[in-house]
Specification:
With about 350 residues, the protein is mainly α. The protein contains 14 helices and seven strands.
Amino acid sequence: MVPDGPLVLDPERLGSMAAEAEQALLREGESENTLRSYRSALRYWAAWYAARYHRPIALPVPEVAVVQFVVDHAQRLDADGTLVSELPPELDRVLVDHGYKARVGPLSLSTLEHRISVLSKIHQLQSAANPCAQARVRELLARTRRAYAKRGALPAKKPALTREPLEALLDTCDDSLPGVRDRALLLFAFSSGGRRRSEVTAATIENTRREGEIFMFTLATSKSNQTGADRAENVKPIAGRAADALAAWLAASRINSGPIFRRVRRGGGIGEPLSPGAVRDIVKRRCTLAGLAEPYSAHSLRSGFVTEAARQGIPLGDAMALTGHRSTASLVAYFRPDVSESRAARLLDK
């Protein structure tokens, strides 16, 4: 028997409840960091478009507007060899004053490309004609990347937090609750393979079990395993000094369920779980306390692990089992060699 009435759906149109469910699944399946970056990019697009064209942005965005966005925000050499861009200074200042930009001046190339990528993604999700996929836009972006490369304006990579600077950070961690927590967090992130911020905050009592003198952290999902596939390398050991530091934090904080790394309130109370942004702030604060001049970031723990593993001759397979990389090319991208000490540069000195 074929049902009729409200149970019958139009195959050409998604019902309102199903549409809401679709959006909920899309949001839940995306990382919070990605969603935050998407929202920021779309807010900027809306503000720039309204200021440039005195009308609200709507899909599909005209191809010419995307070209204008690129030339407004990318630097080029004028006839005198001076770097310029087309965004009017007064408009630039308005965007900064209203919080849409951090500072006046052109966007970095990586930020510009991200903004274009987000606009392209929104057009795809809405099944709208995508101006970012047009040959004119793609060619402009390709030539812009090439121009930046010819000028030597390459993306700056954060330095690696290898053993020496990491030890300096650890030396700033005293026996107070924040100090015990930060020591455990830094060692956990580094020793388990250079965990990303969101992966550190995903550690819970339930997915970090103790086995003798070590802990085993099960990373259900990650950037390289977004579908939660059951893989042997999902389990990361927390051993040695990292295990001792983690045990000390759990004993001091008396956390026995839920997220491991949490805020320490004034007076020593244990508060809410740390956000990924808080992990970044902890690394920066410890760098300041250690007096380190290099611009280390939380992601420096990942490149630091890879670089230190290479220095100490750890086999690639062993390092990849902890980092979660599926290819050596991806792993090598995190390697920060000190070329000044390379034996390869002294082949004729033997």
